[in-house]
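To illustrate this point, we now present one chain and its tokenised fold:
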Amino acid sequence: MTLVRRLLNGLGSFGLACLLLLDLFLLTWFGTLYQVEHGLHEAQKLYFESWFVVQSSPVPLVLPGGLLCMGLLALNLFVGGMVRIQKSKRTVGVMVVHLGIALMLASGFVKLNHSDDGHLTLYEGEASNEFQSYFLWEVALWDASQKGPVEEHLIPHEQLIDLTEGKRRSFTSSTLPFELELAGFLRNCQPMPKGPMWEAESPVVAGYALEQGSEDKEAERNLAGLTLRARDRATGALHEDLLWSVERHPATFESGGKTWAVSLRHTRYPMPFTIRLEDFRKEDHPGMSMARSFESDVFKIEDGREQKVRIQMNEPLRDGGLVLFQSSWGPSNAGPKDALFSTFSVVRNPSDHWPLYSCIVIGIGLLLAFVPKLLKFVRAQDSARAKLETSA
């Protein structure tokens, strides 16, 4: 037996499939336990978006992570169900089922690597053509004197989160009269007056510094911060400031005869249309202030045309490659006359409909696999019944 044949036999074996399914069970079990203390986002990153997992408790193990496990499972399905299988009319259904399962696994891979997700929060009458991430950050820089549409310079999440333990990174552009330096990224912090009772995690600016807090297990609740230094290339003038993600106003400084604004915020994504919230309604449980159901009437505005759409639980808006779900509302302590906002979870997923297609393919495969067997069984029963009638 050649080496290639042995490799194919191993990759397509039923034993490997069983081991991978056992690994998925363990990842789900340990990930669920980890989620209790560290939150869903961290558990997902550690167990299901990784190549390997080093598990120390309650059982010391080194496991293939979700990426490696699902990749091997897809390869196992392809080799075992498409390459090594004996190809005949009887196995067509089995091959189609394996193809459908592989399509479902591929949809998960595409979503992981090529989708954006976040939320859009609007009060009645408000409109927006962008949504923002729950977890990712960006630094936006713009000329504060601009009127109308603002041209922003953006520094993405990947160039911010590693600016810890004294690491700094400089950013320059031929269109900017200064050099920007960022440092001291903190995942969860707040600006506090600097006193002798605590050590600052950032430089002290105007008597304030960023005090690091423990990370919230619900990752979307963390309030990031970092420090900036802007040096004018012509004069050498230096401006130092603190950036905090929930500041109401951006930091500003003068350079090149202009006023520049800079802000740390959640990553924003443009939408191909504008959403305006027309009316939000909620229905409470009898005798309680807890919402039983809630829904939003919105206008989808695109190319000057307005379309009224109702978004409610289990009935999202799907358009332009985006899916908007009715996910929340607030504020939770609002009085009878207080204005309420509506929050939509937004997902841009190129493989949004792939799971549906995969289920259709799997269903066709099951029909091809089992309908002939059913017909064969029915014919056998009819034949046996006819023999009994003849003998009688």
Observations:
- Helices lie at 3-11, 14-38, 40-48, 66-83, 92-114, 354-391.
- The chain has a mean pLDDT of 89.
